[in-house]
Structures are given as structure tokens and as C-alpha cells.
């Protein structure tokens, strides 16, 4: 009889989940360590985090991703930033989801990152559905 698999806790592996490298071993250890806590203990750990430190760590991670990313990743980052800025300036307006018409939590979907302001507006469920159909993010 096969043992029931535990639901994975935490972020997905970054290297593709080879399971052999040092990064995967560390991630597996941390997932196992974190899974020992009850949901209440996990919530307490999250509440105990310093938001300023967390923001600074997140900022550093984003800078590192921008610096070390592939040209395709950098193009995606630039396109998303350009959409954000255009919305802030008022040059681009969020429209309802083209699939269902909802106006809440619409995302800008890029068919071509080379044309950053040419977007299709989709609600989160339809955006995720489209990417699943396309073969992932």
C-alpha cells in the first residue's frame, strides 16, 4: 500500500525540483521543518515577522531577479511595469474581463511582450485558465 502524499507547503522549487542539488535539499528540509508546526503556530510565526525587514528582503530579491534574468524575463518585467505606469498616468484604463464581464481583479494579459500596452483584460480565473490552456505561465 502506498503512503498518502502530504500536500506541499511553501513555494515551488526554483530549480525545477531535481531533488539532488543543495538548493532542493535545503528546500525539502525547510518544508519538513515548517510542516511540524500547527496552523496556529504558523500564523504566529507570520505575525511575528517584521514587515519592514520583509519588504527590504523582497525588494532585494526583485532586484536580483531583474539583474540576473534572461532577456525574455527582463522583457516581461518591463512590459508589466509599463502597463502599471500607463494605468497610474491614466493612459491605460482597466476594462472588464473579456470572457465574463466582471470588473473586479482584472489582469492585463500580454499576447506579445514586445507590444507592452497591447493587452487583453481577464479576471484572475480566466487568466489562469488561459495560461493552463497555453501550457503554463
Uncertain segments of ≥5 residues (pLDDT<50)? none
First-last Cα distance = 35 Å
How much helicity do the residues have? 40-55%
Largest sheet data = 2 strands, antiparallel
Strand tally: 2
Structural class: mainly alpha
**Radius of gyration, CA atoms, in whole angstroms:** 19 Å
Q: Give the mean pLDDT.
A: 85
Explain what you see.
The chain has 137 residues and is mainly alpha-helical. The protein is built from five helices and two strands; from the N terminus they run H-H-H-H-E-E-H. Strands 1-2 form a two-stranded antiparallel sheet. The two termini are 35 Å apart.
Summed up:
The protein has helices spanning 22-35, 39-47, 51-68, 71-89, 124-134; strands at residues 106-110, 119-123. It is 52% helix and 7% strand.
Amino acid at each position: 500500500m502506498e503512503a498518502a502524499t502530504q500536500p506541499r507547503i511553501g513555494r515551488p522549487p526554483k530549480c525545477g525540483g531535481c531533488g539532488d542539488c543543495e538548493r532542493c535539499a535545503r528546500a525539502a528540509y525547510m518544508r519538513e521543518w515548517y510542516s511540524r508546526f500547527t496552523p496556529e503556530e504558523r500564523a504566529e510565526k507570520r505575525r511575528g515577522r517584521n514587515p519592514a525587514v520583509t519588504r527590504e528582503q523582497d525588494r532585494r530579491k526583485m532586484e536580483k531577479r531583474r539583474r540576473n534574468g534572461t532577456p525574455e524575463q527582463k522583457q516581461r518585467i518591463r512590459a508589466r511595469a509599463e502597463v502599471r505606469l500607463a494605468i497610474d498616468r491614466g493612459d491605460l484604463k482597466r476594462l472588464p474581463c473579456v470572457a465574463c464581464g466582471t470588473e473586479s481583479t482584472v489582469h492585463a494579459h500580454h499576447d506579445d511582450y514586445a507590444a507592452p500596452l497591447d493587452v487583453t483584460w481577464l479576471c484572475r480565473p480566466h487568466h489562469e485558465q488561459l495560461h493552463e490552456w497555453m501550457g503554463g505561465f
